[in-house]
Write a structure and sequence with these properties.
This protein is mostly helical. Helix content is 42%, strand content 3%. Strands 1-2 form a two-stranded parallel ribbon. The N and C termini lie far apart (29 Å). The structure holds a DNA duplex.
DNA sequence: TCCTTGACTCAGA
DNA sequence: CTCTGAGCCAAGG
């Protein structure tokens, strides 16, 4: 799914995967968090980007390579975003195997497992937004 | 060609 | 804290 595809979708998805690969085992990141690390394409309206980038990340996950730890990416509520019949149980299983715990409602405590993001150095090397924002 | 269907998030109730 | 609805594009049937 992509809604409002970014001008450079292939490029965008590649960046998303690079970021996801940095998420350490036992930690999780949200779609919005990943999106916030990647700057909008030149000329793109910041408002539109903020509104749709999270979905683009979701779209990137839908087609990610096997070496991408897609299970560590969940929604802003700390819940699995996959539909029950699309691998949600598998995702939860993978996370639990890494030590991530789910509460009674099937949510992950983001205060405990949320990833802090890649190092400033890594961000610069990959052309992502720097710490401190613009 | 028309209609459905998405790995999301945020504000309101 | 939980549940709803809005925002909005494109590929596939």
């Amino acid at each position: 799914m992509k809604f409002l595809s970014p001008p450079d979708q292939a490029e965008y998805r590649r960046k998303v995967w690079d970021v996801v690969r940095q998420i350490p085992e036992g930690q999780v990141a949200t779609y919005g968090q990943i999106a916030a690390l990647i700057p909008p394409s030149k000329g793109m309206d910041p408002g539109d980007y903020a509104a749709w980038s999270a979905r683009w990340v979701g779209g990137a996950m839908a087609a990610c390579p096997d070496d991408v730890p897609w299970q560590r990416v969940i929604n802003s509520q700390g819940k699995i975003s996959l539909r029950p019949n699309a691998g949600a149980e598998r995702q939860r299983q993978l996370l639990e195997d890494e030590g991530v715990e789910f509460d009674a409602r099937g949510r992950v405590d983001l205060d405990v497992y949320s990833w802090a993001g890649p190092s400033q150095e890594w961000r610069q090397a990959h052309g992502l937004v720097s710490i401190g924002g613009s």
